[in-house]
Write a structure and sequence with these properties.
Radius of gyration: 18 Å
Largest sheet: 12 strands, antiparallel
Distance between the termini: 38 Å
Shape: globular
Number of strands: 12
Strand content: 25-35%
Length: 321
């Protein structure tokens, strides 16, 4: 499966009830993608505000423009925390089984250079609310709000209960979470996710992608254990973002289209080097639909097509002026 939540690196039910500072380390993936915690958790009815997201280089998509789809990492984390909160300690650990994201508003243009002052970059507050929880798992909703009070993105996550993380993978997760953040981590999304730039189509606004009923190999991603969750698999938000980048990479004219909606189903834990199998199901002037399956690479460096780790459906809409 993918994103996970347990006492090793995410908020537990006890943490959710505690409005004071949390002492355990935050996950490395969240840190890299601008997720930050508030010292105190704010509550308004059934809605909770545990943290926020700083836009920056990690918010820059494959087309070179900022995208609120970068909030996927925070949305995976926040919905998992919400389910743990609602479970009140009854679920030892959970993994993501499905995550849907709607991008409601473009991010404003900002200076995304590595040496830019983070104080000058957009800040978006995160809110979450549990939807349902039982002995098997649960579901929750989360959303981001910009400085004007508008929702920028929202997501719904479904989760399944699993045993606690193995000690070795949990120790690695904690160790990675304690690594410093420096100039080398203030880089675009594709670099953080290990994308091979030679594995995607050359960007050209005059070329439309070919529609196909068949999957073809596309974007390749190298292993980066810093993206692992406490269970030792790639973070669910990182897997979803890899799917988004692969979908963008299948469209030469990607700079003309914004991510509108994404649905990801997590079928197996994500491990090792992987390749995206993609198919452009519709390449209209206003809407694009791209399917992506992330699969492992075999010993001969070819895709293991019958073992998808995630199945991703990405809808694009023509970019707003």
């Amino acid at each position: 499966m993918a994103g996970t939540s347990d006492p090793g690196g995410r908020r537990t039910a006890e943490d959710a009830e505690n409005t004071g500072p949390r002492s355990h380390p935050q996950g490395r993936t969240e840190q890299l993608f601008g997720v930050r915690r508030h010292d105190e958790v704010r509550q308004e009815g059934a809605h909770w505000n545990p943290g926020y997201m700083l836009a920056g280089p990690s918010s820059i998509g494959l087309d070179g423009r900022p995208t609120a789809a970068a909030a996927t990492v925070l949305m995976d984390n926040a919905t998992a925390v919400a389910v743990h909160h609602a479970a009140a300690g009854a679920l030892e650990a959970i993994v993501t089984t499905e995550l849907t994201l709607n991008v409601l508003k473009p991010l404003p243009v900002f200076d995304a250079s590595p040496d830019a002052d983070p104080a000058d970059q957009p800040v978006m507050e995160c809110w979450y609310t549990p939807l349902t929880v039982d002995a098997v798992g649960g579901a929750a909703r989360a959303w981001l709000v910009d400085a004007e009070g508008d929702r920028v993105a929202e997501a719904t996550g479904w989760f399944q209960a699993v045993p606690a993380a193995p000690p070795a993978s949990l120790d690695a997760f904690v160790r990675h979470g304690r690594l410093p953040l420096g100039p080398e981590t203030r880089v675009p999304m594709a670099e953080l996710l290990g994308l091979d730039p030679d594995s995607v189509t050359v960007q050209d606004d005059t070329v439309r992608p070919d529609q196909s009923r068949e999957f073809v190999p596309g974007a390749r991603f190298r292993e980066n254990r810093e993206l692992d969750n406490p269970q030792g698999a790639v973070h669910g938000g990182a897997m979803m973002l890899r799917g988004i980048l692969a979908a963008q990479g299948a469209m030469p004219d990607r700079a003309l289209y914004d991510v509108q909606a994404v649905r990801t189903v997590y079928t197996r834990p994500g491990h090792g080097d992987m390749v995206a199998l993609t198919r452009v199901r519709h390449a209209g002037r206003s809407l694009r639909f791209v399917d992506v399956e992330l699969v492992p690479l075999g010993e001969d460096d070819s895709p293991v097509a019958d073992k998808p780790m995630v199945q991703v459906q990405v809808t694009f809409r023509v970019a707003r002026d």
